[in-house]
Amino acid sequence: MKMPMMPPREGSIRLKDGRRLAFVESGDPSGAPIFFLHGNPGSRYMRHPDDSLTYRLGVRLITPDRPGYGLSDYQPERTLLDCPADLEQLANMLGLGRFALFGVSAGGPYAAACAWRLGERVTRAAIVSGAAPFDRPGAMKGVNRDYRNAYTLAAWPEWLLHPIMALHDRSVRSNPRRALAGVMAHCSPDDRATLSNPAIAAQVQGWRMEATRQGVRGMRREAHILVSPWGFRLEEIRPEVHLWYWEADSIVPPQMGRYLASRIPRTVQHFLPGGGHFSIFTHWKEILTPLARPE
What we know:
Strand order of the largest sheet: 1-2-4-3-5-6-7-8
Number of strands: 8
Shape: globular
CATH class: Alpha Beta
Oligomer: single chain
Largest sheet: 8 strands, mixed
Order of helices and strands: EEEHEHEHEHHHHHHEHEH
CATH topology: Rossmann fold
Strand content: 15-25%
Number of helices: 11
Distance between the termini: 18 Å
CATH superfamily: Alpha/Beta hydrolase fold, catalytic domain
CATH architecture: 3-Layer(aba) Sandwich
Helix content: 25-40%
Mean pLDDT: 96
Radius of gyration: 18 Å
């Protein structure tokens, strides 16, 4: 029996190593469980602003803060492959046997890592505008100048990167509207239209402010992870992976998705015209529907 929709529920657990892992549940409490892996910067508040849409799709959306974001404790020297153990402990605490994965942007590599490590527990996965490995020829083809510079900076030593990121974060937190306008200035026309929606703009600003509640250590570590080797073979991923990319996205261009498609054995490919990096909002229903489908 379908339970009534309730307000988003905040929660946290203590992991085996003593760290706190915070998360939010939204949508249908009795629905198909889907772990949503946020982007960078991001937090447990990253999702479509209309929770009734998620509810009507029969989805129980569970969004954890990665270490150092929001209310989750920072984890020094963490790597991409630390994420599956955290997610598995959260799934066990929630009493979940099998579940789907949904990783967006910088969350895409984490979805891939969890699908690789937790394969038997993963029903399906979606990588949406998700970054591909950077240790390959042509990794930044089609990336706009600002993000090309950002990806290059991410490879710097963390002690050198920290003050630059801290300065930028202070600017964002002091004037969120100006920061959003700066993002929109480099977006595709479709993205600008999406971010002009007040509910979506408020959601984006909300998750961004929560991301660096503890400072930029989590974001700094995340940047380093993003451009580092992933540490596993994409060819060994066993679950079905849906790939969603849009031609007008110059932050994570479609060539990244096509690289993943050439390596991951079982993919369902959605390479769409127009759109942009924020097309997750306009295609929310289409992305979630196959993930919620019964086995």
